[in-house]
């Protein structure tokens, strides 16, 4: 195990945490512990934005130092304005980060390999390598030589930056970057949950622990339901099997449902990879799944910042109305900056930052109009309190309308911050937004989100029941009619039930928040449910992806889980505090007064309600804990038990073990200075294709077929044909292409030999010299002065 790189990362993250502590103390002044848990993202957000902007002119280690200098200046300004961190709390928060960091280190150390089969690790490792070489941003596309990258690269830029700051090689930095961002998710979730629960009189620590568990560790209900399926009565087995296993059977087992059930309902055969395939036509992950899968995907690494957006929204929510400039700074400066970071890191999260701004402004006691100068605010804010339900509704709708405007402004700020990427042509090709895609069937949806939605419903029932008891009978009757109507519509209209369920929870939750009966935990639950609802209403239209919801569900659902799970974690702590306390008090009364007196004095209905609530919460906790227990057993416990756990963080282990005949050649290319262009044959994605560009970061003429999505199918296929010509076509045309793409090195390895065989040209020409030879690879260097002249030989 490589402990020195681990310690280097812990040291650098500790420095960043200390640097961000005054900034967090300034932004989160009204939260417990002065926002100590948010110190790391408070430093990383301005750092990443500064590096991104400076990098448009010049990128390198000096750029990182300038970025740190800007963060230091912001921290010094915060300190000068009186922001004093609670250093003991900062140290405690750093300890929470270290726990999350080491959990993920344990996962990655068991399987550190960077491979093409399991996901898009090749794509992201190539991006980190090419960013390390970059002189400006965006870098040259390593899989489309001569053109700037056309993919959001903020995640890989941050991973490369951390590796450069620590002096740790990328082969280790890839895995340590994953652990760093997971640790940040862990500590920010802890801080949000702790603050929400503490403000309502509960334990900060307990709220933090439950929220960190639900956000960073807990899994969907899928695993528990699949493992419990063999014990379900026969009368229920059919529908449950179809809901829990149907999509996996359709996608991987040719529709053989019973084969799938037999394979995936047994603990020893259970595979965590299949837990995201539940709702037909979608792939939906929880954060732990995304991090263990070990891509540097933006939708994975953005989640700590999604949680940080929740923290900023909470800070706005609790800030008094009189502190107008602080509220402006939080919503437009804080959430606007996070939105900008999302713009070039994970564009799918940009609307989420705007949505959190909208929810915070709409839910807070301070009217949205009070963000404006006093004279304008007086004209926009209702002058008197509502005297009737109609006036109250009108005032609330006006509040929501103004909050939507605020969210729109945050969105525009985000676009402006990320404008070098979003506005100037570096966004991958897309065909806009589509509406009303195929909807989710309720049974499969509940297999995935049943636990989370149960916690939402139980918490709403607890917060809303006193209010319901005070309502007139006529109002309760009208509500019952509406519920029955929604149920009837859901039964009549195909797959409408998920929309009806989510909309009911969202409206009920929002009304409780605005009535003052529910706090910010409900705002987070509403945010998560709102993102899930968006998947039923709209999707991004992407070329070459036939399934309309495929990418959208992958990128959005994990954000929904992050925010909704944060609300569920805080709700769990609050519910247990309230109802365990009631049950304990009832038990003490029974012991003190005797059985008969206790029966007479005890409110049996309240005791039953508390018992049921605690029971529901415990069941949800057990169901949610099944996934991380099974995953840890599979990824770490199994190898340890079999004495095969040989911890390492070296991402190149698999190359040494399985592609040793190319290892020396790939290391040689990695050591080449500058950015000389190479050529290698492309192959099928998710296979051992384009290793030369991937492991060196050098640009190659054409890489994986992802470039067809980013550029166009025609552009991709044209370059593939050109590579074929370089290796096996007419020499005059090949020479012209070598000149056109400014190729320095021609890579001839196993892929090239297998593809072209005897048809491959001889490189025994004056224009080529052997630059490297070893294993199964020969690398030729091109002498452009010896290439035939275009006018003489044609092209």
Automatic annotation (TrEMBL):
Protein biosynthesis listed as a keyword: no
Keywords in alphabetical order: Membrane, Transmembrane, Transmembrane helix
Pfam families: DUF2298
InterPro entries cross-referenced by the UniProt entry: DUF2298
The keyword Ribonucleoprotein appears for this protein: no
Transmembrane segments: 6-28, 35-55, 61-79, 91-110, 172-197, 209-229, 301-319, 328-348, 397-422, 442-461, 473-490, 496-513, 520-538, 558-576, 608-634
Listed NCBIfam families: Chlor_Arch_YYY
PANTHER family, alphabetized: TETRATRICOPEPTIDE REPEAT PROTEIN, TPR-DOMAIN CONTAINING PROTEIN
Protein name: DUF2298 domain-containing protein
């Amino acid at each position: 195990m490589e402990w020195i790189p681990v310690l280097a990362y812990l040291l650098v993250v500790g420095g960043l945490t200390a640097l961000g502590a005054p900034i967090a103390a300034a932004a989160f002044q009204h939260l417990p512990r002065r926002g100590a848990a948010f110190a790391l993202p408070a430093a990383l957000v301005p750092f990443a934005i500064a590096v991104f902007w400076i990098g448009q002119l010049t990128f390198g280690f000096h750029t990182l130092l300038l970025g740190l200098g800007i963060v230091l200046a912001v921290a010094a300004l915060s300190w000068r304005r009186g922001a004093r961190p609670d250093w003991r709390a900062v140290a405690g928060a750093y300890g929470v980060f270290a726990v999350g960091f080491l959990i993920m280190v344990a996962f990655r150390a068991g399987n550190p390999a960077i491979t093409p089969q399991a996901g898009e690790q090749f794509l992201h490792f190539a991006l980190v390598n090419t960013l390390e070489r970059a002189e400006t941003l965006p870098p040259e596309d390593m899989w489309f030589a001569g053109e700037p990258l056309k993919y959001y690269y903020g995640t890989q830029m941050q991973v490369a930056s951390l590796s450069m700051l620590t002096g740790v090689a990328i082969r280790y930095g890839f895995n340590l970057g994953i652990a760093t961002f997971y640790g940040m998710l862990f500590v920010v979730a802890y801080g949000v949950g702790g603050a929400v629960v503490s403000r309502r009189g509960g334990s900060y620590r307990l709220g933090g622990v439950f929220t960190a568990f639900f956000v960073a560790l807990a899994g969907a209900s899928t695993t528990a339901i699949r493992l419990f399926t063999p014990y379900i009565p026969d009368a229920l087995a059919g529908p449950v099997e179809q809901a829990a296993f149907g999509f996996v059977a359709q996608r991987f087992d040719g529709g053989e449902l019973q084969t799938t059930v037999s394979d995936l309902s047994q603990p020893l055969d259970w595979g965590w990879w299949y837990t995201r395939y539940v709702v037909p036509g979608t792939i939906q992950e929880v954060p732990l799944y995304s991090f263990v899968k070990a891509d540097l995907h933006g939708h994975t690494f953005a989640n700590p910042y999604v949680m940080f957006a929740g923290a900023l929204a909470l800070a706005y929510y609790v800030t008094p109305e009189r502190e107008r400039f602080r509220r402006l700074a939080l919503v437009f400066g804080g959430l606007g900056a996070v939105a900008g970071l999302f713009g070039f890191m994970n564009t799918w999260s940009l609307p989420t930052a705007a949505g959190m701004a909208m929810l915070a402004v709409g839910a807070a006691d301070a009217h949205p109009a009070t963000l404006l100068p006093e004279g304008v605010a007086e004209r926009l804010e209702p002058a008197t309190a509502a005297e009737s339900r109609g006036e109250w509704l009108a005032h609330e709708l006006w509040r929501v309308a103004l909050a939507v405007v605020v969210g729109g402004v945050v969105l525009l700020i985000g676009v402006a911050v990320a404008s070098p990427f979003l506005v100037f042509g570096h966004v991958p090709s897309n065909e806009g937004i589509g509406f009303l895609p195929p909807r989710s069937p309720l049974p499969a949806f509940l297999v995935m989100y049943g636990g989370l939605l149960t916690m939402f419903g139980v918490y709403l029932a607890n917060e809303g029941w006193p209010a319901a008891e005070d309502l007139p009978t006529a109002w309760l009757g009208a509500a019952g009619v509406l519920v029955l109507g929604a149920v009837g519509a859901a039964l009549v209209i195909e797959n409408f039930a998920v929309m009806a369920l989510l909309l009911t929870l969202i409206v009920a939750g929002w009304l409780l928040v605005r009535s003052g009966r529910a706090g910010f935990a409900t705002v987070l639950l509403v945010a998560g449910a709102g993102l899930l609802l968006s998947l039923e209403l709209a999707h991004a239209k992407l070329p070459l992806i036939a399934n309309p919801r495929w990418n959208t569900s992958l990128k959005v659902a994990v954000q929904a889980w992050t925010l909704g799970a944060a609300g569920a974690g805080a709700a769990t702590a609050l519910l247990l505090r309230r109802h365990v306390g009631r049950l304990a008090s009832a038990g003490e009364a029974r012991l003190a007064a005797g059985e008969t007196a206790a029966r007479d004095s005890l409110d049996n209905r309240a005791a039953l309600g508390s018992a049921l609530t605690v029971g529901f919460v415990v069941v949800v906790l057990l169901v949610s804990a099944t996934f991380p227990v099974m995953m840890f057993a599979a990824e770490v416990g199994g190898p340890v038990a079999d004495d095969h756990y040989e911890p390492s963080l070296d991402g190149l282990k698999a190359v040494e073990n399985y592609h040793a005949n190319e290892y020396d050649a790939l290391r040689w290319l990695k050591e080449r200075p500058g950015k000389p262009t190479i050529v290698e044959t492309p192959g099928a994605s998710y296979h051992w294709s384009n290793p030369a560009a991937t492991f060196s970061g050098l640009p190659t003429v054409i890489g994986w077929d992802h470039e067809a999505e980013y550029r166009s199918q025609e552009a991709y296929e044209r370059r593939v044909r050109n590579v074929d010509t370089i290796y096996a076509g007419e020499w005059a045309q090949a020479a012209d292409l070598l000149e056109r793409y400014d190729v320095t090195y021609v890579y001839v390895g196993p892929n090239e030999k297998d593809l072209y065989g005897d048809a491959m040209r001889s490189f025994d020409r004056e224009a080529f010299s052997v630059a490297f030879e070893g294993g199964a690879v020969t690398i030729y260097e091109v002498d452009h002065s010896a290439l035939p002249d275009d006018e003489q030989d044609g092209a």
